[in-house]
Amino acid sequence: MFLNRTRDSYQLYIFICFVSQLFFTYIFTVSLLYHVSVVKLDPLQLVLVGTVLELSVFLFEIPTGVVSDLKSRKLSIIIGYFLIGIGFLLEGLFPYFSIVLLAQVAWGIGYTFTSGSQQAWIADEIGEEKASMAYLRGAKAGNLGQLVAIPLSILTGYYMINLPIIIGGLCMIGLATILIVFMKEEHFKPIERTDRITTFEAMKQNVSKIILFSKTSFILRMLFLIALIIGFYSEGFDRLWLAHVLDTTFISSLRNEQLVLLTGGFQLVVVLVSFIVLHFLNKSTIYQELHRIYIALFIGSISLVIALIGFAVSRYFIGLFICYVFIQVSRKVMYPLEDIWLNKLIKDSSTRATFFSVKGQVDAIGQISGGPFIGYIATSFTIRTAIIVSAIILSPVLFLYRFLLRKAKG
Known about the structure:
Layout: H1 2-38, H2 43-70, H3 73-93, H4 97-114, H5 117-126, H6 128-157, H7 163-182, H8 199-216, H9 218-248, H10 256-283, H11 290-313, H12 317-345, H13 352-380, H14 383-394, H15 396-409
C-alpha cells in the first residue's frame, strides 16, 4: 500500500512538472515579443518588469516557504498556481506597462508559494534518495512539456500574440483546481508549535535554524553566493536578448506573426537539445555524488560565460542563434543539479521548503540588484555592452566551482 502511494505521488510530481512547464512555456514563447512589439517597452522598462517580479519574489519567498513548512505543502502549491494564473490573465488582457507590472506582482507571489514547496513535498512523500531521481525526471518531463507547448504557442500566437498568455493563465488556474482533488499529503509533518507561538515567531525560528546551519556549513554559504551571482547576471539577458537580436539582425523588419514563428523556433531548438541532454543525464549516476555535480556545474558555467560573450559580439543571425541555444541549454541542465545539491545539504526535513525558498530569495536579491544596473547600461550605452557586462559578472562562479572541486578532492 505504501509503495502504491509512493508511486502515485511520484507520478503526480512528474505530471506537475510536465503541465506547469507546458503552460509556462506556452506563455513565455510569446510574452517577451508581446512586451516588445505590443506593449512597446523600451530596454529599461523591459528590465524593470523583471525587477518588479523579482522584488515580489524577494519579499514573499521566505514567508511563503514558512507557510509551506508550517501549514501544508499542498495548500501552498495550490495557492501558488492560482495566483500565477491570475497574474498572466491580467498581463494578457491589458497591454499597458502599469498592468504588466501589477501582473508581475501577482504571479511573482504565486511563484514563491510553489518555489521549494514542490521539491519539499515530493521529498517528504517518497524520501530524499528517490527525490533526487524525481528532480531529474521532473526536469526531463518539464522539457517534454516545453516541446509540446512551443508549437501550440506559435499556432495561437500567430493570429493573436497575447492569446497564449490568456489561455495559459486560465490553464494555471485549472491546474490548481486539479491539485485540490488529486494531490495527497500523507507524510508531511508540520513544524510543531504551541498555541502561544505565532506564525511570525515560527518563521523566525525557522530562519534562525538556516542561519545557524549556514554559519556551520561552508558549502551552503558557497551555494548561496553562487545563487546571488547567477541572479545578478541573469535578469539583463533574460529581458534584453530579443531586443538585441532585433537590433542586430534583419528580423526587425519582419511582421509580428513572422516574429512569433522565429522566436518560437528559437525556443523549440532549446527544448529539443535540453531534452536530449537531460535524457542522458538522467541515465547517468552524476546526481549521486557532490563531486560529479560540481564538475557538471563547472562545465555548464564555462559554457554560459563563453556563450554570453559570443552572443554579445556576434553580428550574424546564425551566431546569435547558436550562442542563445548554448546559454539556455546550459541553464536548463544546471537547474535540477542545483536542486539536488541543496537537497543533499539539508539535514532537517521540516525546514526543507524554507531552505529552497532562501535560495530563491538570494537569487532574487541578485536579480533585483543586477536588473536595473544592466538596464541602465543598455539604455546609456548599448544592449551589446550590457550583455558583455553580464558575462563578466558571472565569471567569478568559475573560480568558486573550481575551489569546491579542489576542496571535494581534499
